Amino acid sequence: MSEAPVPPVRTAGNVVPGSAAAARPSVIQLVFREKGALYAAYIPLFTDGGLFVPTTREYKLGEDIYLLLSLPDDPQRYPVAGKVAWITPVNASGGRTQGVGVKFPSDDKTRVLKVKIEEILGTSIQSAKPTQTI
Q: With the CA atoms of 70, 65, 125 and 118 taken in that order, what torsion angle do they form, in degrees rounded to the nearest 10?
């Protein structure tokens, strides 16, 4: 059994750590081209949903992070103003990919996005197949 590929992550902007601009949330474009990659990143344990974002950048718990999310077979991009809710460090046990778990905010727009993601995943959301998440 092979793991679903982790989607490519692109960050926008060149923020110098410690500068005034560093206080702004980072922006990450997250593109899911396949349902399997979305399954591997989705975090259904968060009440409002969330996603695993592979990144080598260091984040702190509770830090704001802004996602521009593209879903499989959907031309629309979804902006999500989330928060870092867990961190997978470099060299994590079990060969887990370094990155962060981003918790979606509690708002109507994001609830609609959560429903859309869960519709795309369908019954696979109940699978025991390993993911990049909890």
A: -50
Q: How far is it, in rounded angstroms, from Cα 105 to Cα 129?
A: 26
Q: CA torsion 124→10→60→5, rounded to 10°?
A: 30
Report whether 49 contacts 42 (CB < 8 A).
yes
Task: Give 24-46 pLDDT, tens digit per residue.
Answer: 778 999 999 999 899 989 998 89
Quote the pTM value.
0.75
Quick one: CA torsion of 52, 122, 125, 123, rounded to 10 degrees? -160
Q: What is the mean pLDDT of residues 49-75?
A: 94
Q: In sequence order, what are the residues at sequence separation of 6 or more whose Cβ sits closer than 8 angstroms to the Cβ of residue 2?
A: none
pLDDT in tens, 85-111: 999 999 888 888 899 999 999 999 999
Q: SS3 of 108, please?
A: helix
